[in-house]
Amino acid sequence: MRKLTLALALLAMFSGPVFAIYAHASEPVDKTLYPGDSVDVGKAGPGQTVYLIVDRATDGGTCPNNFCPDGWDTVVGVEDGIPHGWEVEASPLQETPMKLKIKIAPDAEEGQYNLTLAVVDEGNYNGLGNMTIHAIVTVSRDVFEITVTPTRVETGVGQPAVYYIKIRNTGAASDPFEIKVREGDLPVWNYKKTALVNYGSERTIPYEVVLDEEAERTFTIDVTSLSSSQIHKEMSVIVDSRPDIVTDWKATTHGLMMFPILEAPIYAIVGLLSQLL
Fold first, then answer.
1. Helices (DSSP H) in the chain: which residue ranges?
2. pLDDT tens across 99-117, in order?
3. Rounded to whole angstroms, how far apart are CA atoms 255 and 160?
């Protein structure tokens, strides 16, 4: 009897997570999840969309040719465990890997949110049942950084001044950003540019402005997420537009808005000469 009691005690001691059913999250963080566990998805802004990617395989391996006959089938949101105004889209049935889409409410206040999810074995055909897990999402408007170089450009009247905007996405959501000049800063200039920046990465985008008058102007470059106008940053820079010939020549090194291709070699030579003056 004493031996049986000891055997049962040892079985209880080692029957924890090692032998439990689990699922493995691969993005945006790498973590093995047991029933009731939480995964920190990261931070994202109001209106942005983040994805939780979970493997279908349950043995730590992979699914050859996307075929997992003994694995999970989908990840879904538990209705009463989703914050008001948020949208959670289940991964398509037997998608490999499973991608759960989480769209944050556009009016979500900053802070940490706990979402209740379920990893599902459809029909319990594989004997896995449904496993409840949690996703932690931190809502913040501070999910990207920008730098602009140079901060001052001399150019000719009617010639482009080119600024290079580096956008570093520090959040968990890949997002398109719109680059423009703040309204009213430059006369009749409303050129906009859009660039997608994946989460955890950065991109440098050239942005041009043109003045059709001789003037030195300070203006603001505005970078805004297309998911929400609440997610934006801005930086003040200077354009100095002059009518002299040397400045016009220097402007050709920035590129021209439009010119005949046959004249390209001429503009290249002019730009080179301008650097020597």
1. 2-13, 245-251, 264-276
2. 999 999 999 999 999 999 9
3. 7
